[in-house]
Amino acid sequence: MRIATYNIEWFDALFDNAGQVLADDDWSARYNVTRRQQAEAIAIVLTALNADAVMVIEAPDTSRRRSTSRALSQFVEAYGLRTTGVVTGFVNDTQQEIALLYDPAVMTARHDPQGSPDSMPPRFDGAFDIDLDVDAALDHVTFSKPPLELAVTLAGGRGLRMIGAHLKSKAPHGAQGRDAVMRLSIANRRKQLAQAIWLRQRIAAHLEAGDDLIVMGDLNDGPGLDEYENLFGRSSVEIILGDGGPRLFDPHAEQALVSRISAQPTTARFYLTGEDRYLQALLDYVMISGGLRNLQPRWRIWHPFDDPVCWKTPELREALLAASDHFPVSLDIDL
Q: Which pLDDT score, from 0 to 100, does residue 184 have?
């Protein structure tokens, strides 16, 4: 079985309010890529990926006029994909939802949020109170994109839990000047760490209950990614993996943690306008619980330059570059 996560940049901009795919020659929200080029590139990548389930990060918007499920269903139909099942969770206001595409012949999945507004940890559409800056005052933290909690049942009857996550970006968007950039960067990291702690508490409950668990998505963080990490001692990824009790495992995260000055796996590629170069980063993960590590798991980053098959397949290589600034991460596992 293949399970994947894929952050598709500005996927929402490829649909009208009726969920129809805008596969035309107008510009997409990606630089120098038309809507037709991006839509076709996404379809090529998803076809090549051939996953039984794909956690879509930055899925199309759900709002008063728009529907994530309607848009994804029409995209799947338009390009003949087998992942016709769609499940979403709590909607947000960012035009970037989290959704699971899956093959109904292989599994069923339903939104199954845990907790309540008053539990600890609270449900992911609630608020988490934590002292972020050690001032003896609790900070009120919310998810701009609440994680998607799923109860999954495979065709053979086996059950497992999945959580799709898109943690807050640490980037100081909108800040002007060095001091403002520093203040906003630190504030964003505090909030992101709080989200990671909140998510880890939910993960710990599943692990202590003996659940098979897969946590995947864009964590917007990785060991050693910025200078502010030293202020807090660890990254969000380390918190989510766990540093006491049952741990999750992702080989790319483990590799990055072993040595932060050697070559690292990467899942995203961004152009830095002011520096006229590209930055690569490890942001996307598929983490699994201990019991699943015994089922011959194999991870793959579908990187157009680092993965030999992607590099040697020009159509796929170009599609990966046109579709998004992130690349899929897949897990093959014998379930």
A: 63
pTM beyond cutoff 0.90: yes
3-state secondary structure of 92: coil
pLDDT score of 86: 98
* Distance from the Cα of residue 138 to its chain's centroid: 28
| CA dist., res. 183 & res. 79, Å (int) | 45
Ramachandran category for residue 284: left, alpha or beta (phi over 0 → left; psi -120 to 50 → alpha): beta
Contact in structure between 8 and 324 (CB atoms under 8 Å):
yes
Q: Across residues 59-72, what is the average pLDDT?
A: 97
Total domains present in the chain: 1
| SS3 of residue 185 by DSSP | helix
Residue 111: helix, strand or coil by DSSP? strand
- In CATH, what number is assigned to the domain containing residue 289? 3.60.10.10
CA-closest candidate to residue 99, choices 35, 140, 145: 145
Q: Which residues constitute the domain of residue 58?
A: 2-332
SS3 (DSSP) at 230 = helix
Give the β-pairing of 268-272 and 277-281.
antiparallel
